[in-house]
Automatic annotation (TrEMBL):
This is Arrestin C-terminal-like domain-containing protein. Keywords: Sensory transduction. GO terms for molecular function: G protein-coupled receptor binding. GO terms for cellular component: cytoplasm. Belongs to the arrestin family. SUPFAM superfamilies: E set domains (SSF81296). It comes from the Eukaryota. The lineage of its organism: Eukaryota, Metazoa, Spiralia, Lophotrochozoa, Platyhelminthes.
Length: 383
């Protein structure tokens, strides 16, 4: 009997503690909903704040719709990145994605019934400047290779350039190369490639490199003592079936939508990171080490950092030298049409973060086929 009483009292204590936990969860959620700078807004929205898609839904369903807006904080919400899995695999791509779940219930901690729950996959993109405002100055890099062999000696100068520092998806990259072979050996082979570099800080840390497009040159290469040898080639940045393989980083892989390579990650130091930098400088007394620590912390917040470069490799004799030209690969900022309200969130002076609906999961929902077709046609509107 004593054991039974002890078990009952223990269960009562456990129930009381669980109720306290639920109340604390409700308090935290209410704070997030009432946040002034970031969070979910529904009651404070006016007609001018609504998107055309929201106005269409309100006119169709009258008072049954509740429009809302979601603002994601830019400092702790990285862009969507998906690492492509092997072909034929049914597993979800590894990376960063966002899902918006809306359900109807009595309390916020209730179980989500499948018949009253809708899940929407969001793809957060980092857009670059408009096409008319992007920089057009060329980028030039050079390297010198010294050959010091018993029978052969000399120097090899490589100079490579691209037209602009920022390219948009599906644009071609024109690479110009100038070689000065002041060596007694001829150049055997030349390779030009676009390399995607993904620094992963989620679960496991590592750096992965993938060749997007490459070009070999083995004919009419500079011989010994030849100067001012020029060569130009064009590389593609579009997503083709040849590079749609395991390991390529995409801007959120969606089978029903057009996919492209992951955009370059732009690291912006916010005010919190500036304070962190000052604190690190006071501790380490070294500006370079402090800056590296702050940039590393910013990269860890992004989860996956994407960068691109043009790699030029030259083989001469038994040695090889490489040259790298970094550049940005992004999407242009969408031009706002006449009469359309721009509802995007300006996070920095030069970049705008977009939150686009790219897919809807209508599974376990009791709706008609006509409604699903209409929703899928309108799901490209912004929240």
């Amino acid at each position: 009997m004593n054991n039974i009483k002890n078990q009952k009292t223990w269960k009562n204590k456990f129930k009381k503690k669980s109720k306290r936990k639920i109340e604390s969860i409700e308090e935290v959620s209410s704070i997030v909903l009432s946040d002034d700078s970031y969070g979910i807004f529904s009651q404070t929205l006016t007609i001018n704040d609504l998107t055309p898609f929201q106005l269409k839904m309100i006119n169709k369903n009258n008072q049954q719709t509740i429009p809302f807006r979601i603002i994601l904080p830019p400092s702790i919400s990285p862009s969507s990145v998906a690492i492509q899995t092997t072909q034929g695999s049914n597993n979800k791509p590894y990376g960063i994605n966002y899902e918006l779940t809306a359900f109807i219930g009595q309390r916020i901690d209730d179980n989500q019934p499948a018949s009253s729950t809708v899940t929407i996959v969001l793809r957060k993109l980092t857009a670059g400047p408009k096409i008319t405002q992007r920089p057009l100055q060329p980028i030039v890099e050079s390297i010198k290779k010294t050959i010091n062999l018993p029978c052969y000696y000399g120097e090899l100068f490589i100079k490579a350039s691209i037209e602009k520092p920022l390219y948009y998806h599906d644009e071609s990259v024109c690479v110009s190369i100038v070689l000065d072979n002041l060596c007694q050996l001829p150049v055997r082979k030349l390779q030009v490639a676009i390399v995607q570099i993904a620094e992963v800080f989620v679960l496991t840390k590592g750096t992965y490199r993938l060749t997007v497009d490459k070009h070999f040159c083995k004919v009419n290469l500079p011989q010994a003592g030849e100067e001012q040898w020029k060569y130009t080639t064009i590389l593609n940045t579009n997503l083709t079936d040849n590079i749609l393989k395991h390991g390529v980083a995409l801007d959120g892989y969606i089978r029903q939508e057009k996919n492209w390579l992951a955009s370059s990650t732009v690291l912006n130091l916010s005010e919190n990171f500036k304070e962190c930098l000052e604190m690190m400088q006071n501790i380490n007394k070294n500006v370079n080490n402090s800056t590296d620590l702050v940039i590393k912390a910013n990269k860890e917040l992004h989860g996956i950092v994407i960068s691109y470069c043009v790699r030029v490799r030259c083989w001469i004799g038994i040695s090889r030298c490489s040259l790298y030209i970094p550049f940005l690969l992004m999407q242009p900022e969408k031009e706002s049409e006449a009469g359309e309200v721009d509802n995007h969130v300006n996070c920095t002076n030069n970049h705008t973060l977009h939150v686009d609906i790219v897919q809807i999961h209508p599974s376990d929902l009791k709706v008609t086929n006509d409604e699903l077709v209409e929703i899928s046609n309108d799901n490209k509107s912004t929240v």
